[in-house]
Amino acid sequence: MLPWRISGSYLEACNCEAICPCRRIGGRPGGRSTYGECFGALSWIVEAGHAGDVQLTGMRAVLVMRYHDDEPGSRWTYALFVDARGTEAQRSTLADIFTGRLGGTARKQFPWVFKDADLQGVEALEIEIDHPPGRGWLRAGSKVEVRVREPVPDQETVTCLIPGHHRVGRELFSDSIDINAGPLVFSVQGRCAYETTFDYSSDDR
What we know:
By secondary structure, this protein is mainly β. The protein has helices at about 90-100, 105-110, 110-115; strands at about 5-15, 25, 35-50, 55, 60-70, 75-85, 115-125, 125-130, 135-140, 145-150, 160, 165-180, 185-190, 190-200.
């Protein structure tokens, strides 16, 4: 297997009410999403990374998704956007990591990899992401825009599977989530978001 590792900052937002009940809160396992259907956007800034000889430092990725808690065996529907500033090798390698084709921790931490899922496509877009604590935002072309308003006050320890329950993060209120990507079209205000760091690799121990 090609050795790879990427690490950096992570920001996501979905349509659940804060604190998102899907997360682990105070060490208690997460459960059903607020409305029985979850949709949102996830973003990563790779602050250090490589896959074999391909350098990935500075690359960015955004993933939009939807699934239904109330449909047994509901498949994840998702689309992946990779940084158009990268070379073809960088973009394809990033896509291989986030779709699980390069294995590693993705097979344990990415639900769209270890569950049944429908990939709508991988597209290179101009991606802008800023992750200042408590006030992050992201944009992927004209298809995705998320803005965070402020942290949730007086919260217990909150963790999320995708960056990893071993990494402590912080729950936020989103200001807006606007997505228009093929079958993934939704817009909500004043819901939840989450910020933390990530460290993924081909070593999934």
